[in-house]
Amino acid sequence: MERALQAIVFDMDGTLADTEEIHRQAFNRAFVECDIPWQWSPAEYHDLLAISGGRERIRRFLMQKRERPRSTAALRQLALTVHKRKSDIYRDMLCAGQVALRPGVKRLLAEAHSRNVRLAIATSSSRRNVDALLKTTLGNEAGDLFRAFATCDVVEDQKPSPAIYQYALAELGVEPAHAMAIEDSRNGNLAALAAGLTTVITTHRYTRDNDFRGAALVLDHLGEPGQPFHVLSGSAHGATFVDLELLQRLHAGGGELQAATGTIRPMRSAMAGK
Fold it and tell me: Does the annotation count 13 as an active-site position?
């Protein structure tokens, strides 16, 4: 079967921009404002990132650290309150210009858009957070680049469930065999693989030790001309930065890689008939 690359689906946090440290700082500021006497260290946050979704991380942490019994409903409400404040703080930090796109992201987005490769975002974050990041880093260009936004506002199941990718592909009108995902975490990689996509991973300080079995290529970033990436796993076929030519080559070999790893369990999108 012809495996022409028609779409690229990007994760957001850690992939488009190195935002995880900003998230951690926003969580800690929200804890202070909500009179919760804890601060997440980088090491603690590294472990908590194994849980997809900010509310879920807060609730898990509260359950583990609570000093007096709370009902499940009370824990859920406290997590919602803290997370809402944290999200406001995070967006304020973004608007203050505390983040930039990772190397190669803007270049690859522009190349894909110019060659009519469809683009989407699949993230456990909210649409408001997506819009804040894109407006801060891409300005008015962002609205013309992406054709679909799969966020926690429209998909309840968090990564590593494939649901977020299935929704994105349904919105794009593209079959998994014609799409790739660019991710940064183990859960994201598992979600994209389970949805039937070939994956490229760009790691950062919080995910470089994750297990990325099944990914076609694992890098430290997408690279730029004059700023080459470092290959952590897989073959870049002599390339020094990720462009559509490299992605098409990786994508064409995706079927063989997936069959060899046995990690992919393609699932029909629950949104396909919408």
Answer: yes
